[in-house]
Structures are given as structure tokens and as C-alpha cells.
């Protein structure tokens, strides 16, 4: 029975009822230690749904995919049903078979698909306790899957603490637990077996804050004599002390085996007993702890009653006892005839663990090797004990698992530099990195460096740690590791690699200026011996330079021209194209450049992404659209999810400029979702701002401002966020469409200042700048923008840019008609419609009503089709002035009835793709795809996917 949790239980009941009806949900339950998170999880598990269960353990936080394996273990027989790349990704993560490393988010997609398969015959409940101790690889995969749950009949429940860094889960619903109400707290306290005086009872109710664990545990250690004494310790420390007082009453051998279990973190009692036997303890010695209700033994698994119990056991032991426990565990995980190195702690068995004097902690030493975090708790956080029924032994299916565990226990037992242990940890880091467990690999490399005897090995391992931290997105840690390595190396062979690490870290932290300087420095270091590498570094420098200004762009372009690249080097055509695009000059077609680079061996989409951004600068939108579509397909197929957000952004731009705003919105929203999931702040900002621009096109003022504000949120860089230029452009377009010219001018003014001036959107808003300036009577300002637009048209050699320049000339000319007619040749739908609107307005003022009507009706049709409401209203106003009535808005076709996701799924289904193929492309489960198709059919007036091909879905 749970006291005082009726509302919370009702919430869980609703989620489980939804799962039975085929709906999915995810919920994070937060609260302090002992507040009842696990009790609510147990309540949910007792409601009769098939349940998969896992938990985080602090000692396993650096062992990648540790908790994930236990959660999905019941469904592993279904792995063969996954799409091949998802199957390979999941097997690679678990070290099963010889597979290339996979994108971490592809592993998350595999988890989503696997859960959907498990729920095929009925609802499924997934429980993850102590999520704040999940290894990062597991957390990333589970969060990716949880955010995409929809119609699988799966409920995911996470329990985590309330700290700001404890399992951040943006996008998931949260339930924060507080103390029990007074009546419930009193009922729980009175249900205990300890007799309390009224004064003691009052004190406990007051000091517990309604914490259920405190109400259950503190009565046994709080005496009436202490009633008047104030206790300054935090509640979690007081609970740990309460547990410690119970532990000291156990027999020495019982405390020994408990210490080994606490050090191991494993639920598999076999390894624990194997290690404990060498310290003089065994299975019978666990009985007193079980009788005292501290642990539970069931089917060979050991479960702690609460994480703080495990923490109390470990923290209450002396340092020598802990070292001995880790040595014994290392021996238990060693292959035959491979004892721990002799350089480890000399003690072979603990001397009376848990005694009153045995309270020393690793953190009290001055040895940096010993001070490395091998304990189950931090010195200032007594809550940090791991609990639950998951442990190292749960991952027996991993290849090399024993070697990894042995390495970490050796590291925890080390009292000084030890090369054998350092080498073992480096091997562990290499294996973990290959499985894309980058966070765990960083920890292993860094610990290996601390244990290194040789300074050269220490530097090498720090460099590896820094580079791996960059791959993990740990920019701050990467920079710190790089600085440490640079200080020890003093230049030399690692200088270029460390400069790259620091450059990427600084760019990721929002300082493109210093990042750019480091990229350039690294390129200079490589230019003589390895010009191909220098060119690849400079392609990254092009990216940073776009955020700085023309001087930096010219510097990169000049550097690229000096490199002596072989004609058959894949970087050669890429470098030449980027050099031309920096100045906005068309040098060759993008399609030809991509084909040449591929022919020379550029088979990684990452090598070609920057070409898409540069192609937009020279106005090759159609080719960018084509290449981006190819790269998106390749990235989906190969699981390169990190590249999708920029590619979807580039394609969304092309679709918008090409007159396909509905498709553009679908691409942008997908890109935004991916960028949010994997923490790509730059693309979150850009895509929010782009969606603001789309909203402005449609005249949706509320959404435009909301998206623009999110694009420049403080956590994304505020006014200096990378999406700021698009946000200003969006507000400017909205104001221009509404006829608020002064406001439009203020927003578009930002497009005249570097670095926005040379950005893609800075160039694309030049026609807006001209129109606003002309209508405000500022010809000088208009002429300045026109000069830039004409120059861009000449350099890019694109007909549609020349058409926009002709429109600008028309607005400034005494005889605009020839320029208007020129501007109608080779333009794109929205831009051409705007030209016809301006032309029609001039014709009406010139009293040429018939000609004006022709232009205005044509532009109104286009605005209507595009959903450009402000421009449509402007055209209708002009037609009304001519005495011409306008019909209601035309039907936009069948897709106008669908949500963006439904539209995307229907298009793919109409192409003949199966639900599973669509799911793999869109990072959904196949059941969610089926659910959206089921909702779309009635809207489209069809009953099966076979009828979709007959619809006009363009």
C-alpha cells in the first residue's frame, strides 16, 4: 500500500490504460532519495502488463550500453526482425559480431523498433530506475526512442533525482514527487514497529519532510534523548548514517561480502561470491543481511533494499578494505592464470569492514591516482549509492566484457602508476569507442593516462581522450583534456590534433572567432606534409568563417588556392568549389563537383555537406536540392543521423525558394526534431528561425514571433545565436507582408551588417530591402541594395537572381515596364508572383486596368496555392480596387488536409515503400507509421495504400 500517492497512482493508471488501447507514453518521475520513486515504479509493474526493467548504477556509468542491454534483453530474440542497419547497430553496441561502429541515434532507433516488435501482441511497460546513473550511451538511446513513441502501446517510465544534471530529458513529460501530506506521513510512521514517544514522533514528522524512507528508517536510530538536539545534516546523509549504524551490527564476514557486492555493483551473486571467497567470506554470510531486510536474494541475484544501503556499506569501509575488494573482483574477472598485477594494494583481505573506526574514504588521500572516481559515491554526496538489481553480470553477452570489468576494478585498486592496468584500460577505451560509447571511452582513456608510467603514453592517452570527448559532444571536457595534453607534450606530433580538438570545442561553445584561428593554425601545420588533410581542415574553417565576415572568408579562400593538391585527391574539386563560392562566384556546377569528388573517393557524406551550403551562396538551388536529397538518403541508410539536421535545413531552403513551402516545413520540422534530440544547438536555432520565416510567409504572426524567440533563446546564444539572421529576416518579411514598413526596415537593417550581410539569407533578402526602401522614399538605401544584388547576379550567373535584379531596377526606374517584363523570365513561383503583384500595382496606377488585372489574378493564384496569406490579401485589395471580385481560396489538394508527418508518410507510401521502410527513413516505429496512415486514409477518401498512387500528391 502506498500512502498519500493517490494522484500519482491515477496518473500511472491512465498511462497504462492508454498502452492497452495502443497509445504510447513516456514519463520521468523525479524526486530526492527515499521520496518514493521506486515504489511508484513497483506499483506500475504490479498492474499486469509485460514489463522490461533496468536501472542505472553509478559504478557502471562509464560502461557504455550497460543498462540498455538488460532492458532489451527479453526481446533480443527479435533482433533478427530489425532492418539490417538497425540490427547491425544494436549488435555492434553490445559487442555481438563484427560490425562497424554505428551512429548512436541509429542505436536508439533500433531500440524503438525492437520495443514496437515486443509490443506487437499487446502493451509493454519499460521501467528504468535511477536514470541519473545511466551510462550516457544508454541514456541517449532510450531518450531518442522515448521521444518517438506514438502508437506502439509502449509506456516508458524513468525515475531520476531532481538535480539540474540528473538525467536531463527535454521533450518528455515529468512528475516531480514531494513529501507526503501530513496525514499520510503520520499514517506511514505509525504503521512502523518502533514505539515512539509523542515528542519523538513530532520531531520525526517535522524533520522528515514527508520523506517515506526517512519515516521508515529514522525511528530505529533516533532516541528520545535526542529530541531537543538540532541535526544539521542533510536528510540523505542522516539516512546513510542510519543505515551505517545497522551495518556495524552485522558479523564481520557479512560486512565483507556486502562490501564486495557494493564494490562490484552486480546483481549476479556468482562473481561476488567468487571474489568474496578469496577474502574469507561466502554465501552463508549473506543470511544475516537478508534477515535484517537489507538485501534480497532471489534466483542467484542480489538486490539492495535501497541505493543508500549500498552507499553506506562502501563508504563505511576503510580505504584498504575497498582496495582489497576491487583486487578480488579483478581476479574474479581475470582469465585463468592471470592474477592482478603485483603493484596494486597489498592487502589481501579486509580487516573487519564496517567497524566504528573504518570510515576512511578514497577522497581523503593526496594521491591523484587513488583520487580518481572509482567509488560508488562522491565525498560530498551520500546519496550517490547505486541500487536496484542490475549489475556488471547482467551484460554477460558482451564480448570482452570480463576484460573491461577487470580493467576498471584494477584501476580502482591501483595506488600508483601501473602500466599494465593503464594498457588494459586503453584497450577497454578502444573497444568502447568502436561501439560508439564515447562517454565511457573518454573516462577510460583519461584514467589510463593517470595510471601511465611513461610520459609519452600519458600524452597519447590524453589526446585520445580529448578527441573522443569531441566525438561525444563534450566540448568543455575536450578542451580541458587538450590543454592538459598540450602542457605535457610541449608541441610535437600531437600539436595539430590538439588544435583541431580545441577548435571544435570552441566552435561548439559559441566562439567561432577563436575556433577559426585554431582551424587555420592546424591547416598551416599540415599544409607541407599533408595538403589533403590541410584542405579538409579548411573546409571546416569555411564554416567558421561564415559566422565572422568577408575577411575571414577571403583568408580561407586564399589559403585553399595555395595548397598543392593532387588532381586525384577527393579534396581537390571540393576545395575549388568552396574557393569560388566564398566570393559568391559560380565556378562550376555543384553536380559536377560532387560527381568528381565521389569518383576520386569521397564516399563519406560528411565530406560533401558543406558543398550544399556553399551551393546556396552561388544560387544553385536546384542542384543543392538534388544533392541534399541524395545525401539525406545516404545518411538515413548509413545511420549518420548527426548530418541530417544541416542537410534537411539546406533542402528546406531549396524547397521554400523553389515554391514548395509545405514540403519545406516537413523537412524543417524533421530536422529540428533531430537537432533537439542530439543536442545540435546551432541547428536548433537555425531551424526555429527558418520555421519563423515560413510562418511569416503564411502571415501567422503568433507562430512567427514564437519561433523567432526560440531561435535566439539564451541557451542558444541570445541575440548572437546562429539563427538570429533568419529570425530578423522572418520578422522583416512578416512586417512587409502586413504593410508595416518602418518595422520591416528595422528588421532588415540587420541584414546589412556583417556577418549577416554575406549570409545566404542576407543575400536572399536584398529584394525585400529594395522594396521597403523604395516604399519608404529612401532611394539611396534602395540603390545600395540593388548594387549588391546586381553584383551577385553577375557573379553567380543564375537567371532567377538576374530576374530579381531586374525587379529592383523596375522599382527605381522612371520607365519600369521593360524591367518588370525582364523580371518575369526565369524566376521562381513566389518571387515571380511578387513581381507580378508589383507590376500589377504599377499598371493599375497607370490606368491600365486590363493589363493590371491579368498580372494581379495570376499572382493571386500563386499566393493562394502557396498559402502566402498577406500577399494574397494585398493582391485581392488591388483587384477590388479594379472592381474585380475574388473567389474563396482554392482547395490546396489532398495533402492540405494532413499534418506534416502524415503528409510525409503518405508520400512515401504512395511511392510503394512498406511501413517498415518508411519507419527506417523517418526514425519512427512501423506501428506509428501504420497509425498515421490509418488516420490519413479517411482524410484522403481512400481505404488502402494501393489507392494513394492515383492521388495528386504534388
Description:
The chain is mostly helical and 954 residues long. The chain contains 45 helices and seven strands. Strand 3 (124-129), helix 6 and strand 4 (154-160) form a beta-alpha-beta unit. Residues 224-233, 345-373 and 375-399 have low confidence and may be disordered.
Please identify the structural class as seen in this structure. mainly alpha
Helix percent band? 55-70%
- Uncertain ranges: 224-233, 345-373, 375-399
- Biggest sheet statistics: 5 strands, parallel
Count the DSSP helices. Answer: 45
Strand order of the largest sheet: 2-3-4-1-5
Name a few traits of the molecule.
five-stranded parallel β-sheet; 954 residues; 7 strands; mainly alpha
Put the structure in a nutshell.
This protein has 45 helices and 7 strands. With 954 residues, the chain is mainly α.
Per-chain topology:
Blueprint: H1 6-20, E1 25-30, H2 37-45, E2 51-55, H3 66-72, H4 84-93, H5 104-118, E3 124-129, H6 136-147, E4 154-160, E5 173-176, H7 182-190, H8 198-208, H9 212-217, H10 235-247, H11 252-264, H12 269-277, H13 287-291, E6 295-298, E7 301-304, H14 307-316, H15 319-332, H16 401-413, H17 419-434, H18 438-451, H19 455-471, H20 475-489, H21 495-508, H22 512-526, H23 531-546, H24 550-562, H25 571-582, H26 590-599, H27 609-617, H28 621-638, H29 644-657, H30 661-677, H31 681-698, H32 701-711, H33 724-737, H34 741-748, H35 760-764, H36 766-775, H37 779-796, H38 799-812, H39 817-823, H40 829-845, H41 849-866, H42 869-881, H43 900-910, H44 915-922, H45 926-940
Parallel strand pairs: 1-4, 1-5, 2-3, 3-4
Antiparallel strand pairs: 6-7
Helix pairs in contact: 4-5, 5-6, 10-14, 11-12, 11-14, 11-15, 12-15, 15-16, 16-17, 17-18, 18-19, 19-20, 19-21, 20-21, 21-22, 22-23, 23-24, 23-25, 24-25, 25-26, 25-27, 27-28, 27-29, 28-29, 29-30, 29-31, 30-31, 30-43, 31-32, 31-33, 32-33, 33-34, 34-36, 36-37, 36-38, 37-38, 38-39, 40-41, 40-42, 41-42, ...
Amino acid at each position: 500500500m502506498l500512502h498519500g500517492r493517490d494522484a500519482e497512482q491515477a496518473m500511472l493508471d491512465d498511462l497504462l490504460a492508454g498502452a492497452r488501447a495502443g497509445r504510447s507514453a513516456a514519463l520521468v518521475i523525479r524526486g530526492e532519495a527515499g521520496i518514493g520513486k521506486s515504489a511508484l515504479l513497483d506499483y506500475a509493474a504490479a498492474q499486469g502488463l509485460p514489463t522490461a526493467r533496468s536501472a542505472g548504477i553509478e559504478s557502471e556509468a562509464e560502461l557504455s550500453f550497460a543498462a540498455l542491454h538488460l532492458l532489451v534483453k527479453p526481446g533480443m530474440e527479435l533482433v533478427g526482425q530489425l532492418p539490417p542497419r538497425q540490427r547491425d547497430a544494436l549488435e555492434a553496441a553490445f559487442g555481438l559480431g563484427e560490425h562497424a561502429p554505428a551512429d548512436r541515434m541509429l542505436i536508439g532507433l533500433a531500440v524503438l523498433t525492437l520495443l514496437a516488435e515486443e509490443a506487437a501482441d499487446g502493451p509493454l511497460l519499460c521501467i528504468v530506475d535511477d536514470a541519473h546513473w545511466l551510462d550516457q550511451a544508454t541514456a541517449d538511446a532510450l531518450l531518442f526512442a522515448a521521444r518517438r513513441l506514438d502508437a506502439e502501446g509502449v509506456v516508458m517510465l524513468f525515475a531520476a533525482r531532481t538535480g539540474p544534471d540528473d538525467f536531463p530529458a527535454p521533450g518528455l513529460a515529468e512528475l516531480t514527487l514531494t513529501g507526503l501530506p501530513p496525514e499520510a506521513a503520520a499514517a506511514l510512521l505509525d504503521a512502523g514497529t518502533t514505539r515512539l514517544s509523542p515528542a519523538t514522533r513530532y520531531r520525526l514528522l517535522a524533520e522528515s519532510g514527508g520523506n517515506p524512507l526517512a519515516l521508515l528508517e529514522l525511528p530505529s536510530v533516533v532516541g528520545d534523548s535526542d529530541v531537543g538536539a538540532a541535526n544539521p545534516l542533510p536528510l540523505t546523509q542522516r539516512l546513510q548514517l542510519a543505515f551505517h549504524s545497522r551495518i556495524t551490527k552485522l558479523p564481520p564476514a557479512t560486512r565483507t561480502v556486502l562490501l564486495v557486492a557494493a564494490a562490484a555493483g552486480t546483481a549476479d551473486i556468482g562473481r561476488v561470491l567468487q571474489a568474496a571467497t578469496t577474502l574469507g567470506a561466502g554465501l552463508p554470510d549473506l543470511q544475516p543481511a537478508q534477515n535484517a531486510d537489507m538485501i534480497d536474494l532471489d534466483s542467484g541475484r542480489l538486490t539492495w533494499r535501497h541505493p543508500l544501503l549500498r552507499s553506506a556499506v562502501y563508504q563505511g569501509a576503510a580505504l584498504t578494505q575497498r582496495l582489497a575488494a576491487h583486487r578480488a573482483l579483478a581476479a574474479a574477472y581475470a582469465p585463468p592464470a592471470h592474477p592482478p598485477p603485483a603493484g596494486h594494494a597489498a592487502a589481501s583481505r579486509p580487516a573487519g569492514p564496517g567497524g566504528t573506526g573504518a570510515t576512511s574514504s578514497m577522497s581523503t588521500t593526496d594521491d591523484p591516482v587513488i583520487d580518481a572516481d572509482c567509488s560508488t559515491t562522491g565525498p560530498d554526496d551520500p546519496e550517490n549509492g547505486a541500487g536496484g538489481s542490475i549489475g556488471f553480470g547482467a551484460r554477460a553477452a558482451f564480448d570482452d566484457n570480463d576484460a573491461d570489468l577487470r580493467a576498471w576494478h584494477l584501476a580502482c585498486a591501483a595506488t600508483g602508476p601501473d602500466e599494465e592496468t593503464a594498457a588494459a584500460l586503453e584497450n577497454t577505451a578502444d573497444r568502447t569507442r568502436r561501439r560508439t560509447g564515447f562517454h565511457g571511452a573518454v573516462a577510460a582513456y583519461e584514467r589510463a593516462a593517470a595510471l601511465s608510467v611513461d610520459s609519452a603514453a600519458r600524452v597519447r592517452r590524453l589526446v585520445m581522450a580529448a578527441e573522443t570527448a569531441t566525438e561525444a559532444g563534450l566540448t568543455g571536457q575536450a578542451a580541458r583534456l587538450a590543454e592538459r595534453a598540450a602542457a605535457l607534450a610541449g608541441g610535437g606530433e600531437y600539436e595539430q590534433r590538439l588544435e583541431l580538438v580545441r577548435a571544435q570545442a570552441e566552435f561548439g561553445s559559441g566562439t567561432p572567432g577563436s575556433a577559426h584561428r585554431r582551424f587555420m593554425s592546424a591547416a598551416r601545420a599540415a599544409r607541407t606534409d599533408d595538403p589533403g588533410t590541410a584542405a579538409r581542415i579548411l573546409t571546416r574553417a569555411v564554416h567558421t568563417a561564415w559566422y565572422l565576415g568577408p575577411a575571414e572568408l577571403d583568408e580561407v579562400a586564399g589559403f585553399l588556392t595555395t595548397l598543392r593538391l593532387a588532381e586525384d585527391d577527393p579534396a581537390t574539386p571540393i576545395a575549388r568549389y568552396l574557393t569560388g563560392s566564398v566570393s559568391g562566384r559560380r565556378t562550376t556546377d555543384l553536380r559536377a563537383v560532387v560527381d568528381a569528388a565521389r569518383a576520386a573517393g569521397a564516399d563519406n557524406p560528411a565530406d560533401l555537406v558543406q558543398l550544399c551550403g556553399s551551393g546556396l551562396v552561388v544560387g544553385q538551388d536546384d542542384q543543392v536540392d538534388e544533392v541534399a536529397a541524395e545525401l539525406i538518403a545516404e545518411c538515413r541508410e548509413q545511420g549518420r543521423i548527426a548530418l541530417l539536421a544541416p542537410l534537411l535545413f539546406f533542402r528546406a531552403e531549396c524547397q521554400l525558394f523553389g515554391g514548395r513551402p509545405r514540403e519545406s516545413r516537413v523537412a524543417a520540422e524533421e530536422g529540428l526534431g533531430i537537432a533537439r534530440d542530439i543536442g545540435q544547438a546551432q541547428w536548433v536555432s537555425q531551424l526555429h528561425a527558418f520555421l519563423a520565416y515560413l510562418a511569416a510567409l503564411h502571415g501567422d504572426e503568433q507562430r512567427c514571433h514564437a519561433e523567432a524567440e526560440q531561435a535566439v533563446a539564451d541557451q542558444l546564444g541570445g541575440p548572437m545565436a546562429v539563427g538570429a539572421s533568419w529570425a530578423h529576416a522572418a520578422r522583416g518579411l512578416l512586417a512587409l507582408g502586413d504593410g508595416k514598413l518602418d518595422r520591416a526596415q528595422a528588421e532588415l537593417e540587420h541584414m546589412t551588417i556583417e556577418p549577416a550581410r554575406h549570409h545566404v539569407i542576407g543575400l536572399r533578402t536584398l529584394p525585400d530591402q529594395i522594396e521597403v526602401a523604395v516604399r519608404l522614399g529612401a532611394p539611396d538605401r534602395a540603390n545600395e541594395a540593388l548594387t549588391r544584388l546586381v553584383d551577385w547576379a553577375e557573379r553567380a550567373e543564375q537567371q532567377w537572381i538576374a530576374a530579381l535584379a531586374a525587379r529592383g531596377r523596375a522599382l527605381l526606374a522612371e520607365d519600369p515596364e521593360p524591367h518588370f517584363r525582364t523580371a518575369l523570365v526565369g524566376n521562381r513561383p513566389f518571387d515571380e508572383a511578387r513581381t507580378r503583384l508589383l507590376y500589377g500595382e504599377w499598371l493599375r496606377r497607370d490606368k491600365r486596368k486590363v493589363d493590371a488585372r491579368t498580372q494581379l489574378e495570376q499572382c493571386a493564384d500563386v499566393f493562394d496555392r502557396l498559402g502566402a496569406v498577406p500577399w494574397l490579401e494585398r493582391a485581392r485589395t488591388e483587384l477590388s480596387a479594379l472592381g474585380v471580385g475574388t473567389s474563396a481560396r482554392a482547395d490546396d489538394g489532398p495533402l492540405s488536409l494532413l499534418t506534416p508527418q502524415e503528409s510525409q508518410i503518405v508520400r512515401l507510401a504512395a511511392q510503394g515503400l512498406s511501413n517498415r521502410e518508411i519507419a527506417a527513413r523517418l526514425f519512427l516505429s512501423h506501428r506509428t507509421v501504420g497509425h498515421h496512415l490509418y488516420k490519413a486514409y479517411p482524410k484522403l477518401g481512400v481505404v488502402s495504400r494501393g489507392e494513394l498512387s492515383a492521388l495528386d500528391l504534388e
